[in-house]
Design a protein that fits this description.
binds manganese (II) ion; Sugar isomerase; three-stranded parallel beta sheet; 16 helices; 47% helix; isomerase activity; metal ion binding; binds alpha-D-psicofuranose; single chain
Length: 429
């Protein structure tokens, strides 16, 4: 299969920028060398690091008020894969796609896997969906799924999750992410303890169906769609559930699923300490949202999360292998551009965290030298790692300036001719 963007175009766009990039890379290399860091080592680590993109993020998202479609946006998994391939071709940080079912259902999963492979992509964790009803579905999830009071509804939700595992097997995935919207809107609507018991009982049936080498990741979310209480509302509930379910069950941290200003980096450290850090859904948020582009609002928090990850990697305790995924909704941008920007922001925080002088940091911490500890950490954050990321991209066939190259490719305009138009979404207020 032809790559969606011509490699010649990428090379042509890179050519006039290559000298400046080499200059900047060398200047940064000298600066890092003075701090005892070899820039090529950091570049190799960046090349070895990756984050998955969500299939659902390839289309224009919407809010509950409206969706503003984009001409040429993908409407099925085949078109979504094609756009994800563009992201990988230009950015070289996102070789895997995390699919969502039933949104990405097809009749031939072996064929879908081959299609992805031909585009240079693989599949990451499969996501189940028991937060919406599907046409013809026997039981409704209106008042809950895995925690429903109705046993037939719980059974249906269990069965769907098991089906997702089966699909994932065919796609080469090794993880199932479970997020449920279960919860309440009114005090008194449900009993907190009994809902959690029912959830655990149903989740245990899903857990029992996990193949060897698989993990199940529980994603907590404080609110929405349930606005008074959620069954798996926070990392405490998630950890309790993961501990009860077993070794193969871990917690997934979606950055937007916390109250504003919560210290997420500390949660990351705690989950690692408990041996339960399963993975991430990266996004950013300002208030109570979970859909803005990673690093667009609070890049410093993203860096602090990666600082904890670097600590965890250096001190793996029982093991360190989190799954990294993006989970965003792109309501006003071209999703390809947003995911390229996000992948760059995330990889940039990964790179900066590699620059922290850990020995000096630990020494300052031990000596209770507050300012020195703070300055040691901040020094890494303040380094512009752009030349490392751009060099890693270029050396792997990606674009130095992915935005200009993407726009020059006219990919979206071409797809607007080929793909069927998406209807206007209806706002509800
Ligand atoms: C819920 O807000 C969530 O973060 C879960 O990961 C879902 O699977 C995803 O968004 C898409 O709705
Ligand atoms: Mn999520």
């Amino acid at each position: 299969m032809m790559p969606p963007i011509s490699p010649d175009l990428i090379a042509q766009q890179n050519a006039p920028q290559a000298d400046a990039l080499h200059d900047e890379y060398q200047a940064l290399g000298r600066k890092l060398e003075r701090r005892g860091i070899a820039i090529d080592t950091i570049k190799s680590r960046v090349k070895g690091w990756s984050v998955a993109v969500p299939s659902w993020g390839a289309g224009r998202g919407g809010t509950r008020f409206a969706k503003f479609p984009l001409a040429g946006e993908p409407t099925n998994i085949h078109e979504k894969l094609e756009d994800c391939a563009v992201i990988q071709q230009l950015g070289r940080t996102t070789p895997r796609v995390s699919p969502h079912f039933p949104w990405d259902c097809v009749s031939d999963y072996a064929g879908l896997r081959q299609e992805a492979e031909a585009l240079g992509l693989g599949f990451d964790a499969v996501n189940s969906n028991t937060f919406q009803d599907q046409p013809g579905q026997a039981q409704s999830y209106a008042t809950g799924s895995l925690s429903s009071t109705v046993s037939a509804t719980r059974a249906q939700a269990v069965e769907h999750n098991i089906e997702c595992i089966e699909i994932g097997r065919q796609l080469g995935s090794t993880a199932l992410t479970v997020w449920v919207g279960d919860g309440t809107n009114f005090p008194g609507q449900q009993d907190f303890a009994r809902s959690f018991d029912r959830y655990l009982d149903a989740a245990a049936q899903v857990y029992a169906a996990l193949p060897d080498g698989w993990r199940m990741m529980l994603e907590h979310k404080m609110f929405e769609p349930a606005f008074y209480s959620s069954v798996i509302s926070d990392w405490g509930s998630s950890l309790m559930a993961a501990q009860e379910l077993g070794e193969k069950c871990k917690c997934l941290v979606d950055l937007g699923h916390h109250a504003p200003n919560v210290n997420i980096e500390q949660i990351v450290a705690r989950l690692h300490r408990a041996g339960k850090l399963g993975g991430f859904h990266f996004n950013d948020s300002k208030y109570g949202d979970d859909d803005l582009d990673s690093g667009s609002i609070n890049p410093h928090q993203l860096f602090l999360v990666f600082n904890e990850l670097a600590e965890a990697e250096a001190n793996p305790r029982g093991g360190f292998d989190p799954a990294y995924m993006i989970d965003q909704s792109h309501n006003v941008t071209d999703p390809i551009e947003s995911m390229l920007a996000s992948a760059e922001a995330i990889a940039g925080c990964y790179a900066r965290a590699q620059l922290v002088d850990r020995e000096a940091l630990h020494a300052a911490q031990e000596a209770n030298d507050v300012m020195l500890a703070f300055r040691t950490l901040r020094a890494a954050y303040e380094i512009d790692v752009g030349p490392i990321l751009a060099m890693a991209r270029m050396e792997q066939g990606g674009a130095i300036d992915w935005l200009t190259t993407y726009r020059a490719s006219q990919h979206r305009a071409r797809k607007a001719q080929e793909r069927k138009a998406v209807g206007l979404g209806a706002g509800i207020v």
